[in-house]
Amino acid sequence: MTTVESLSHFAPEIVLLVGAVGVLFSDLVFRDKRLIGYSALGVIVVSLILIKALSVSEPLSLFGDFFLLDKLTQLFRVAALAIVGIAILLSLVYSPLSKLYMGEYYALLLFSAFGLILMSAATNLLMIFLAIEFVSLISYVLVGFLKADKFSKEASLKYLLFGSVCSAFMLYGMSLLYGLTGTLKVTEMSTALASAQQPSLVLTALVMIFAGLGFKISMAPFHMWAPDVYEGAPTPVTAFLTVGPKALGFVVLIRVLSGAFTPFFDNWTPLILVLSMITMTVGNVIALSQTNIKRLIAYSSIAQAGYILMGIATFTDLGIQAVLVYAVVYAFTNLGLFVVVVATSEKVGSDEIKDYAGLARRSPLLAGSMLVFFLSLAGIPPLAGFIGKYLVFAAVIKEGYYVLAVVAALNSVVAAAYYFKVIKTVYLQPPRDEDALPCPWPLRIALGITLAGTILLGVMPNDLIEFVQSILPLS
Description:
The protein has helices at residues 3-9, 11-26, 34-53, 71-92, 102-121, 125-143, 150-181, 189-194, 199-216, 225-232, 235-260, 265-287, 293-314, 317-348, 359-362, 364-377, 384-398, 402-428, 441-459, 462-471; strands spanning 60-62, 67-69. It is an all-alpha fold. β1 and β2 (67-69) form a beta hairpin. α6 (125-143) packs antiparallel against α11 and α14 runs antiparallel to α16 (364-377).
């Protein structure tokens, strides 16, 4: 397909780019800075409409085989836009951002949506690396956006340093792959690597690429940055980071493993099995001692990465299906949790768990929503989190990985302990202040979307599961 023909299928992304530039300069026009956020939301809505209008039934190679527009790309196109859209809704009411450079802030969020979509579609190693770095550079800036906050600046620096090292490892691994195969197209590497004369170099490249992607998905032992970054970043940015780069990191990992490393399945499966168990255990055990809600969610997100890795370890159709479904339901649940965090912190001025005491009396809506989201993360039916956990457990048990299943089950019990610790504070401890907690309309919209996704995907998951099944096997 020629470049001009490809552009017609790239219309949603073009709207994102043009809209981001427009939002950037709208700061010079709008005196009411909230209008900039509403403009950014409008760009997201228009892009979503175009994605629906331009959906395709067969995979299309775009821009000289640099990108693949298939059902996997279409799913995470929508997911990326929805994630950024909810982050914008959270930002509209987050007061620490209100007096800063709103044009630049919302433009960066729109650019990050563009980068996430590139990550989902890229099938060329060079474009994969550029897309990941594009999102990473924007994330470093967003994390440190509160320039007067020393914690925000510290978090940004830590994120930059860790990210730079992991990116260097990933780039070196990609250069080894190119040297071994003579191509940058992921879909053409499997055949060349199957007959590779130096399998040790192939495995070295795999480990290095896995290190870079492991950083994006906050997988142990590349998780050290996550708690400090999530705590120091503006809360809407934290919400974005816990789901956006993580979900798309798994998409990239699936594309690379399925396109290049399937001949070495028996070599990398034991590694992922071990890393899955370590990641979920580290995340859950350390979360038990957390007193800050953002740090607790950070360690919970590390543990969730461990559960998702269970599906990667099997790398069967059922396993990949479990990964994709889990990523979607996790996005709804975790974003919803951050809606409650933003609403509460705006009133109490703190992210300490003790300050959530009596939230049920001050705002039954927020408390009930938090209960739903924590129950979903714990995998309690009939919520969406149960569907995700059921599928990953089914995948590993079907392949006979019983040790992994037992470790995951024990970790789920540990996770439930610290989730219910927060719920106990919310419902059973007396409030320090009797004033009601307001929930502005942007938060109500975000809360409605995330609650609907968390509940409906748990009660009626068939449409999502059938769509994911139609993606497989990967083209």
